[in-house]
Amino acid sequence: MWKKIFALFIGVLVGYWLIDDFNPDVLKGKRVVVTGSSTGIGEQIAYHYARMGAQVLVTARRENILKQVVARCKELGPKDGKYFYKAADMVNMSATKDVIQEAYDRLGGIDILILNHILPIPLGMWDGSPQNLSLTDKIVDVNFKAYVHLTSHALPHLVASNGSLIVVSSLAGKIGQPFTAVYSATKFALDGFFGALRQEFKLKGCDVSITLCVIGLVGTENAIRGLRDYGQHFLLAKLPAETPSDTALAIIKGGARRQREIYHPYLSMRVMTFLRDWLPNVVEYINRSMFTVPP
């Protein structure tokens, strides 16, 4: 039995690498909203969509940076392409409605909603301090509640277009990560909420796809700086960081295929999550071995 399970697992891995049926032409003219798109993965997602001929609205807090992203999209995309921005702070739940309304007004509808924004937080041990507790509410608001609000406001438009929801999560949403307890909790919450929503869509015959993206270490400026500041030099030396551009493309491909989940980098993320329920102590040991406790 174990040999059959192992053979099946290896077959899935090999099959995934050998088959790439992604055709960028399917995204031409698609109306796309990307949150957290001023830098990093979100910025690269916007550029890839522009190259593929999609219409894009980007959103983040900093208007001046968003203007630069839109200008770059215009350089990369067709001359008649439509690219817009809406500055919004996701700690404010009313801003989520404004973003979706702006997308509808500018694009005439929504085919793809990519939920990518996060509140960057300093790494640290959870000690139940007043600072831990005060930061928790803000992290939950931005990293979880805003996702729920954006989805809720966008649902009528996604239902009308038989569209796609793409939720950028993390290995931290499958396996608890040291020094990021509340961040990890919000990623687990995304898995629970969107997993339930996916089933509700199926129950009522709603053809809106939900793709959860399980992402490993990506070499964004914020991620690398945060790890260095907290003394995680061993992890940075041993664990290759994926590029934001490659990660963005993997996310876009998974959404276009309407996959249930995608893993990037595929092998390490898939193996860790596959073994999580079979060998939890081993998986957590391997996970912990990458981190060091600062003096």
Question: Explain this structure to me?
Answer:
With 295 residues, the chain is an alpha/beta fold. The chain is built from eleven helices and seven strands. A seven-stranded parallel beta sheet has the order 3-2-1-4-5-6-7, with helices on both faces.
Order of helices and strands: HEHEHEHEHEHEHHHEHH
Poorly predicted runs are: none
User: Averaging pLDDT over every residue, what do you get?
Assistant: 93
Structural class: alpha/beta
Relative helix content:
40-55%
β-strand amount: 5-15%
- End-to-end distance: 47 Å
Q: What's the arrangement of strands in the largest beta sheet?
A: 3-2-1-4-5-6-7
**C-alpha Rg (nearest Å):** 19 Å
Helix count, DSSP H or I runs of 4 or more residues: 11
> So what's the overall shape?
globular
Tell how many strands the DSSP assignment holds.
Answer: 7
Could you describe the largest sheet, including whether it forms a barrel? 7 strands, parallel
Concise synopsis of the structure shown:
The chain is an alpha/beta fold and 295 residues long. It is built from eleven helices and seven strands.
SSE diagram, text form:
Layout: H1 2-18, E1 31-35, H2 40-51, E2 55-60, H3 63-76, E3 83-87, H4 93-107, E4 112-115, H5 130-161, E5 164-168, H6 181-203, E6 209-215, H7 221-229, H8 233-238, H9 244-256, E7 261-264, H10 266-276, H11 280-289
Parallel strand pairs: 1-2, 1-4, 2-3, 4-5, 5-6, 6-7
